[in-house]
């Protein structure tokens, strides 16, 4: 079946512009995560949702960053007034549901959106 | 001190070698330990996960967790060129908590 998809794959924008990055999770996946990954680094947690509810947004760097998932499926990460330091790969992942006990859900990652802020 | 540390490599080994990849962490509250593999220009994919201390084996891959030393390892036996990728350790405190990734170790297996 189809995996996690993200669009656009590449986004070049000028400093000060707003950008919206889209994530379409695997069908039926309840949990959705946003990460930022710098070159040569591991993914850095930004925020995650169960259904439409934002469970944790502690990783969002500042109030220019926001995310929503209004119908519990597609999610949008919005960066307002972009700055050059926002340039990075933004990755989305989804999983069936964060579980309890000794098991943990597999997160399936999308191909990412490469954001470049000039 | 960073929460999770890995030797960034690059690590280069001949085909068939045994590879040892390691992570150290600082917070004893972590209970779930995962290894992800990331090929160039691709997203990470889960290889293995372990809950608490102990060993777990899956084919050529073995994950070890030593919570007393805050040290986790991934061993790859009979390494193949297709194993060439970046390996990321990932940790979480509870099954509902955010996942913290290490910076990754780049591995090249030379035919």
Characterise this structure.
The complex is a heterodimer of chains A (118) and B (111). Helix content of chain A is 0%, strand content 47%. With 118 residues, chain A is mainly β. The model of chain B has no long low-confidence stretch (mean pLDDT 92). In chain B, strands 2, 4, 5, 9, 10 and 11 form a six-stranded mixed β-sheet that branches. In chain B, strands 1-3-8-7-6 form a five-stranded antiparallel β-sheet, with no helix packed on it. Chain B is mainly beta.
What are the key terms here?
heterodimer, A: 118 residues, mainly beta, 7-stranded mixed beta sheet, 0% helix, globular, B: 111 residues, 6-stranded mixed beta sheet, 5-stranded antiparallel beta sheet
Topology:
The complex is a heterodimer of chains A (118) and B (111).
Chain A lengths: L4 E3 L2 E4 L5 E6 L6 E7 L6 E7 L2 E4 L8 E4 L6 E5 L8 E8 L12 E2 L3 E5 L1
Chain B lengths: L3 E3 L4 E4 L4 E7 L6 E7 L6 E7 L2 E5 L2 E6 L4 E6 L8 E8 L7 E2 L3 E6 L1
Parallel strand pairs in B: 2-11
Antiparallel strand pairs in B: 1-3, 3-8, 4-5, 4-9, 6-7, 7-8, 9-10, 9-11
């Amino acid at each position: 079946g189809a995996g996690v998809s993200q669009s656009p794959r590449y986004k070049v924008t000028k400093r000060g512009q707003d950008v919206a990055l889209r994530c379409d999770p695997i069908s039926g996946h309840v949990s959705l995560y946003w990460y930022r990954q710098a070159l040569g680094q591991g993914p850095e947690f930004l925020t995650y949702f169960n259904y439409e509810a934002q469970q944790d947004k502690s990783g969002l760097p500042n109030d220019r960053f926001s995310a929503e998932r209004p119908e519990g499926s597609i999610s949008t990460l919005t960066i307002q007034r972009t700055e050059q330091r926002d340039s990075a790969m933004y990755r989305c992942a989804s999983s069936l549901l964060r579980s309890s006990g000794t098991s943990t859900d597999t997160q399936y990652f999308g191909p990412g959106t490469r954001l470049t802020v000039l | 001190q960073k929460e999770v540390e890995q030797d960034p490599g690059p690590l280069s080994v001949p085909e068939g070698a045994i590879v040892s990849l390691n992570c150290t962490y600082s917070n004893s509250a972590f209970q779930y330990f995962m290894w992800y593999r990331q090929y160039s220009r691709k997203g990470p994919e889960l290889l293995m996960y372990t809950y608490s201390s102990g060993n777990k084996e899956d084919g050529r891959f073995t994950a070890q967790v030593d919570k007393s030393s805050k040290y986790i390892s991934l061993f790859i036996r009979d390494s193949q060129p297709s194993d060439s990728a970046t390996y990321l350790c990932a940790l979480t405190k509870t099954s509902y908590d955010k996942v913290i990734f290490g910076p990754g170790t780049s591995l090249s297996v030379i035919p």
